[in-house]
Amino acid sequence: RREAGECRRQLQARLAEMESLRGAHQSLERQLQELEERHSAEAAGLQDTIVQLEDDLRNTKNEMARHLREYQDLLNVKMALDIEIAAYRKLLEGEETLFSTGSIGLSALNPLPNPTYSFQPKGFSSST
C-alpha cells in the first residue's frame, strides 16, 4: 500500500509537472508564432521599402539621364555658338584689315586730314 501510495504521488507529481511543461510549451509556441508574424510583417514592410527605394533610384537615374541629355544638348549649342562667334570674329578682323589697308586709298579721296567718326548712342555725349 505504501509503495502504491508513493507511486501514485510520484505519478501525480509527474502528471502535474507534465501539465506544467505542456502549458509552458504552448506558451512558447504562441510566443514563437507571434514573433514569426511580427517578423513576417517587418520583412514585408522592409520589402515594400526596398521596392520603393528601387523605384526612387530608377526614377532618379532616369531624371539624371534626362538632365545629362539636356546638358549635352546645351553644350552642343554652346559649342556651335562658340564656332559661330569665332567665325564672325574672323570676318570682323578681316574687314578691319580690309578697312585699314583700304583707308590708305580712301584717304586720298577724303579732304579732311584726320577723319573722325562720331557715334552717339542715347545717354552718351562723347565722340569716338
Helix and strand composition category: mainly alpha
Q: State mean pLDDT (0 to 100 scale).
A: 85
What is the percentage of strand-forming residues?
Answer: under 5%
Instruction: Figure out the total of helices.
Output: 1
Molecular shape: rod-shaped
Cα Rg: 49 Å
Unreliable stretches:
104-109, 111-128
The biggest sheet, with number of strands, parallel, antiparallel or mixed sense and barrel status, is: none
Number of strands: 0
* SSE run: H
How far apart the termini lie comes to: 140 Å
Give the proportion of residues in helices.
Answer: over 70%
Write a structural description:
The chain is an all-alpha fold. Helices cover 83% and strands 0% of the residues. The protein has 1 helix and no strands. The protein has one helix at residues 2-107. The longest helix is centred in the middle third of the chain and has 106 residues, at 2-107. It is rod-shaped, with a radius of gyration of 49 Å. The termini are far apart. The relative contact order is 0.03. Residues 104-109 and 111-128 have low confidence and may be disordered. Residues 11-77 form a coiled coil. InterPro entries: IF_conserved (IPR018039), IF_rod_dom (IPR039008), Intermediate_filament (IPR050405). Pfam families: Filament.
